[in-house]
Amino acid sequence: MGVLDAFDKEQKEAALNATLVVFMADEAGRQQVIQALRQLNISDAYVAVGTINDLIDHLGKMERSPERLIVDISGLDKPLDALDQLADACDPSVTVYTVGEKNDVTLYRLLLQAGITDYRYKPLTVDALRLWLDDRDGYSVRQARSGKIIAVAGARGGVGATSVAGQLARELSAGGALRKVVFIDMDVFGGAGTTLMGMQSNHAMPEVLDSVANLDAQFLARVLTTTDDRMYTLGFNNAFDQPFQPEPGAVAAMLTALSQQFHYLVVDLPHAGGMVANEVYSRANFACLVSDTSVHAGRVLASLIGHVRGYGHDTVVHVVLNAVRPPVKAQVDPREFTKAVGHPVTVAIPYDGKFPALAEDLGEGMAKESQMAKAVARLARTLTGEVVDDDAGKGWIRRLFKRAA
Ligand SMILES: Nc1ncnc2c1ncn2[C@@H]1O[C@H](COP(=O)(O)OP(=O)(O)OP(=O)(O)O)[C@@H](O)[C@H]1O
Ligand SMILES: [Mg+2]
Questions:
Q1: 292-310: per-residue pLDDT in tens?
Q2: Which alpha helices (DSSP H) does 114-192 contain, by range?
Q3: Of all protein residues, whose CA lies closest to atom 29 belonging to ligand 1?
Q4: How far is Cα 132 from Cα 99, in angstroms, rounded to an integer?
Q5: Within 13 Å and on the Cβ side, how many CA atoms surround 188?
Q6: Contact between 184 and 234 (Cβ < 8 Å)
Q7: How far apart are CA 100 and CA 110, in angstroms?
Q8: In a 3-state reduction of DSSP, which class is residue 46?
Q9: Which molecular function terms from Gene Ontology are attached (predicted)?
Q10: Across-strand partners of 226?
């Protein structure tokens, strides 16, 4: 049996659980890769001919996520757009390499900014493959991708933090057909979050915290709650005499592990301060701080912004103004509020009548005409990078694969 025949036989086994998946544009490219992998003694690979769309289809069939992908972008009109779809289709932890026909510095730079680990023009040599596949600890891990962690906290109780967090999770999930989003309710005694997401509250948090080293897709599917394999919830349901005392660092470690499995993690914080909130801030890419326009909330918010920023991680703060009651005094102009707290307001949500309460009781997303739904949709697009100041349009570059924004 020839080298290629033997390889083809292995392919049947590797197709659904290989750690390396390669999609080349043509048979010649495929055979070059097979020969190179042989020379490198790598057998745990699946090598096929196909486009990025074929690769996305294939990923949907795989039993577990591969660790690395190599995809040929030759001949694609809009490689960044196609890769954008691929981003949503594979777990954030997957390392992606690209090959193509062009020796083009601009394309190379855009791909790297977009979170692609490397780009080579063809033919893909043994040396190039060795560099990609051997030096995992140095080169690739440094560039590891991860999902975005979004902390949501209120400047005071009852300002709508949970409503904003829930709707935000829904918007993020709706924004990409293959995106995986987890809504994490940090209320130890079972907050309103899971009801609002239309799911049964679960008590998965203790188990997840105990299993941080082994959080794979199967485990998460078992302990978290999901109705569609895209939106998941994770929470507590402690009895009132059962306080939550995690080991220092446990919550941060859990978020890091989950960020390898989900594209977006929306963390609803019942308290804006304390150890749990601080560990969440220490890992958060974004903190959405929800406030009303009261003098008290304004004061708390000003110091909370400083606190979140001081946590060492490059957390981007978004101030969300929300009116949970009809205005009793003249509406405060967001610009005035901005001046008072010393930070711009990303979105201002007006009093929205029955919509938020209905959404919570029914466990459904907010109606389209809801003001909160519209404002939170804008917030979601700001976080994903789809709403931008320049005219570059929606881009992978500002999205998922970039580490901290
Ligand atoms: N813009 C709005 N218009 C009308 N009602 C709102 C608005 N935002 C939130 N609400 C309602 O206000 C109530 C409090 O909202 P929510 O539970 O989201 O606040 P919270 O900040 O999470 O509160 P807690 O401090 O208890 O966690 C809910 O009944 C919600 O439906
Ligand atoms: Mg809440």
A1: 998 899 999 999 999 998 8
A2: 126-134, 141-142, 161-174
A3: 357
A4: 12
A5: 13
A6: yes
A7: 14
A8: strand
A9: ATP binding; ATP hydrolysis activity
A10: 232
Q: Which fold has domain 3-142?
A: Rossmann fold (3.40.50)
Other CB atoms within 10 A of residue 103 CB:
10
Q: What is the DSSP letter of 213?
A: G
The Å distance, Cα 236 to ligand 1 centre, comes to 20
The Cα–Cα gap between 387 and 84 comes to 16
Q: d(Cα 284, Cα 279) in Å, to the nearest integer? A: 9
> Which among 156, 324, 358 is the best mutation to test ligand 1's pocket, defined by most ligand atoms within 8 Å of the CB?
324
Domain ranges of the chain: 3-142, 148-398
Kindly state if the Cβ of 162 falls inside 6 Å of ligand 1.
yes
For the CA atoms of the chain, what is the radius of gyration? 23
CATH number of 148-398: 3.40.50.300
Confidence bin at 128 (pLDDT 50/70/90):
confident
Q: Are strands 231-234 and 225-226 parallel, antiparallel or unpaired?
A: antiparallel
Fold identical between 3-142 and 148-398? yes
